[in-house]
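Lecture notes, continued. The same structure-token format from the folding unit now serves as the input rather than the output. Read the line below as a description of shape only.
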């Protein structure tokens, strides 16, 4: 089951040590204080017709909702968070937005956010909002860096 697989990945990242340097691991990107993973992605999505993209967007919303519902059962209701301001601030050379939040905000506009009980880590789950011809992706971020 897809939701179970996604939850297992998030659970693993909640206990896994963070990498000492920025780079790639067996599950995705990571660095000091964070893991960032693509839980689900489309493959080879072309411009196609609008109705096909709407169907895929609905499927990805269902993936996110399934994961969010199960995480909410554990840690309480998610805090919905817009990353629009984070993205704008990350473009300002005078701002110091932590790398995982800056990176995620470049792809995802809104996340469901939890502070994972007992781990001291934040968990964010969101869907990329691709421009025409780009892939849909379901992201999860596990970090010890509080959201900006």
């Amino acid at each position: 089951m897809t939701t179970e697989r996604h939850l297992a990945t998030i659970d693993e990242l909640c206990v896994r040590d963070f990498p000492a340097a920025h780079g790639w691991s067996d599950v995705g990107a990571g660095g000091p204080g964070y893991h960032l993973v693509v839980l689900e992605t489309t493959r080879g999505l072309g411009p196609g017709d609008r109705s096909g993209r709407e169907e895929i967007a609905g499927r990805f919303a269902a993936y996110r909702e399934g994961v969010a519902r199960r995480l909410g059962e554990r840690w309480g209701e998610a805090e919905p968070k817009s990353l629009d301001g984070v993205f704008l601030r990350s473009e300002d050379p005078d701002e110091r937005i932590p790398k995982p939040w800056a990176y995620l905000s470049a792809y995802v506009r809104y996340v469901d956010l939890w502070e994972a009980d007992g781990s001291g880590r934040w968990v964010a789950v969101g869907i990329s909002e691709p421009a025409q011809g780009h892939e849909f992706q379901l992201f999860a971020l596990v970090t010890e860096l509080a959201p900006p």
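Point for the exam: The CA atoms of residues 7 and 70 lie 8 Å apart.
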